[in-house]
Design a protein that fits this description.
Elements (H helix, E strand, L loop, with lengths): L1 E5 L9 E4 L9 E11 L1 H8 L12 E2 L4 E8 L11 E4 L12 E5 L3 E3 L6 H5 L2 H14 L7 E4 L5 H12 L3 E6 L4 H7 L3 E4 L5 H4 L3 E6 L3 H8 L2 E9 L6 H7 L3 H10 L1 H10 L2 E4 L6 H13 L6 E6 L3 H9 L6 E5 L3
Parallel strand pairs: 9-10, 9-12, 10-11, 12-13, 13-14, 15-16
Antiparallel strand pairs: 1-2, 1-4, 3-5, 3-7, 3-16, 5-6, 6-8
Helix pairs in contact: 3-4
């Protein structure tokens, strides 16, 4: 099969198109012929080696964290899917690699593709959909009437999280550029802040939850918009001790992560705010619930640009500009 390979950790490194053997199938796996994949900033961060401490991929490896395609083989213990099923997934860590023609995915990580989406649209959903779900439903437990602030409302996670928070009954605020304000409103944002001309911390107050996806300075400002008892959930760091515990890291790495998040955790505690770091995980059951929301019309994916497979490097470079509205997708096969 053809796949785009990272030969070594390198900033802005070139991806190499290579011929690799078809993935080996484990008993609980389905082999998926990839028809579309999507690009996330996580891909460039993994390529650059930013997550080497917690995701030590050994080059050469294949990038890619979103997949939509058709099951062509099923392992002996697979019960949820059969050959011919159209599925989508965010494969689990250490088994990613969707910038390729085929991938073996544990059946627990996959769900049937929403029947009202094309493969291209479906490929845009898993990573951002699960991130939003785990932040707002699982960790945040958002309830009707609460106020939720979602940063970067026109980005991949933002476009999905606004819709999910609105579906959960929250009042939603977001930041975006003036040019993307109408998109944010069309997705359900009640308060849209132009980050170029307004300071969100001067506009917002008394919020129940902030979903932070920006830099440390923005993270610190976010504390001031939350009410006592509110939650600050960050998907851009810094990692916290609970995350280190989940990963089962050694004592040294646990200490490193504890020190990285010490400042924000101390400030949050002083203000009576809960801080948590979220690194989303593969979860086919949750993806199935997301499928139901998409099929009911509660949520629609937002796709900015679609690139052909041979232009995967260009797609990654475009995502790195930070200008994408929603997701950037790659078509791999018909």
């Amino acid at each position: 099969m053809k796949a785009f390979v990272v030969d070594k950790y390198k900033k802005k490194g070139a991806l190499r198109l290579a011929s690799l053997p078809e993935p080996e199938l484990q008993d609980n796996d389905v082999l998926v012929r990839i028809q579309a994949t999507a690009v996330n900033l996580l891909d460039s961060k993994v390529r650059d080696g930013e997550f080497k401490l917690i995701l030590p991929y050994r080059p050469p490896f294949v990038l890619g964290h979103d997949v939509a395609g058709t099951v062509v083989k099923a392992g002996s213990r697979v019960r949820r899917f059969k050959v011919g099923d159209q599925v989508y997934a965010r494969p689990r860590d250490h088994r990613v690699g969707t910038f390729a023609e085929f991938i073996a995915v544990d059946e627990a990580d996959a769900a049937l593709k929403p029947n009202n989406l094309s493969m291209t649209e479906a490929a845009s959903v898993p990573l951002v959909g699960l991130t939003a779900w785990q932040a707002l439903v699982e960790v945040g437990k958002v309830k009707p009437g609460q106020k939720v602030f979602i940063q970067a409302g026109s980005g991949g996670v933002g476009t999905f999280a606004i819709q999910l928070a609105k579906h959960l009954g929250a009042t939603v605020a977001t930041t975006t550029s003036a040019g993307n304000a109408e998109l944010a409103r069309s997705l359900g944002a009640d308060v849209v802040i132009d980050y170029k001309t307004q300071d969100f911390e001067k506009v917002l107050s008394g919020y129940d939850l902030v979903l932070n996806s920006q830099d440390p300075k923005t993270l610190e400002k976010s504390l001031s918009v939350l009410k006592q008892g509110g939650q600050l959930i960050s998907i851009s760091g810094p990692p916290d001790p609970a995350f280190a515990g989940e990963l089962g890291l050694n004592l040294f790495l646990k200490l490193v992560l504890r020190l990285l998040s010490r400042g924000v955790r101390k400030k949050a505690k002083r203000l009576g705010i809960r801080y948590s770091f979220l690194f989303m995980r593969a979860e086919g059951q949750q993806l199935g619930q997301i499928t139901s929301l998409i099929e009911s019309g509660a949520i629609r994916p937002v796709v900015d640009k679609v690139f052909p497979f041979e232009k995967t490097g260009d797609a990654l470079a475009y995502v790195e500009t930070g200008r994408a509205k929603g997701k950037v997708v790659i078509t791999v096969a018909d």
